[in-house]
Amino acid sequence: MADHYEVLGVSRDASPDEIKKAYRRLARELHPDVNPSPEASERFKLVTHAYDVLSDPQQRQQYDLGPQAGGFDGAGFGGFGDIFETFFGGGAGGSQRGPRSRRERGQDALLRVEVDLDEVVFGAHRDLEVDTAVVCETCGGSCCQPGTAPVTCDICHGTGSIQRTVRSLLGNVMTSSPCGTCRGYGTVIATPCVTCQGQGRVRARRTVPVDIPAGVDTGLRLQMPGSGEAGPAGGPNGDLYLEIKVRHHDIFSRDGDDLLCTLSVSMADAVLGTHAKVKALDGDIDVELKPGVQGADVITVKGRGITHLRGTGRGDLRVGVQVVTPTKLDRKERELIEQFAAHHKAESPTLARFQQGLFSKLRDRFL
């Protein structure tokens, strides 16, 4: 690494004004708008970086002292904070050994997905559009403009930390803190990628193929490892979580892995019995109504419910019977009903013993 003072052409005891004048003179000579040659461009980067360091009093002092500053920091016994950092790992990077990596894991993402009840029966495939962070195509996650690379920090010389000596009750103690110039990375991005601004990733829309398994229910979260946001500097992706919401269905409802529905039948069909074709979520089903079927009876069709989320097989389809009593009768219909009633003389309606089963069926039917 070239010496910053030599790059600017000034002495080591140059004043801030002398450093500024030297930088301006070289910038007018080497700026790409004035001198487009590759050699001038590289020199301009060195000059700019040298000026950034030497124009800042703190960075210049650290540069002059090198990575292991030997001076005493503070007077008397004022170094307790640094002592505790040293022995107990306090402070940012206090317990870190070596420079930290720019590559970090990306954040997890949460996406809410609505599915129809018929998709829950057998599962579904979706191609989801997600706005997220992806690896920058220009630099490939390196954070640098193509053709360039990170340069070793000339303040900490690649260690990522600055060591200093403090005076304490225990004597002189060597402490370590992250380098303020490179932020503990040990390297500096001299020429950041113009597309991602040196982050190694950009915001973009991408398509994520998702296979939603059968049997999911509202509130369930599915984890897709590695489908979340890309990490900084080309770091690994986080995870994507899908939160499921099952849309309301006008006919069918759900009780666990069983499907529930109601079949309305006429009084005549309830008395005489009949066959009904029920349109289920995965095709038609023939349901046999035996003569004398009662309202709130439940007919179970095995294996025509929802596929189990874990395991094999399916739940059942439970069909609750609702006998529809006619409310408007013409004269002939009324006469026939009266004849039927006269033939089947029945006692007047009376209270009877409470039947738990009847109310349980009604409850199940309208879940």
Structural overview:
This protein is an alpha+beta fold. The protein is about 25% helix and about 30% strand. It has 9 helices and 16 strands. It has helices at about 5-10, 15-30, 40-55, 55-65, 80-90, 115-120, 265-270, 330-345, 355-365, and strands at about 70, 110-115, 125-135, 150, 160-170, 170-180, 185-190, 200-210, 220-225, 240-245, 255, 260-265, 275-280, 285-290, 300, 315-325. It has a 4-stranded mixed sheet with strand order 11-12-16-15. A 3-stranded mixed sheet has the order 1-5-6, with helices on one face. The protein has a 3-stranded mixed sheet with strand order 2-10-9. A hairpin with a 2-residue loop joins strand 13 and strand 14. Residues about 70-95 have low confidence and may be disordered.
